[in-house]
Amino acid sequence: MLVLRILLILGLISVAVSLGIYVISGDKRYLKFTWQLVKFTLVLLMVVALVIAMGRIVLY
Question: What is the pTM of this model?
Answer without folding.
Answer: 0.76
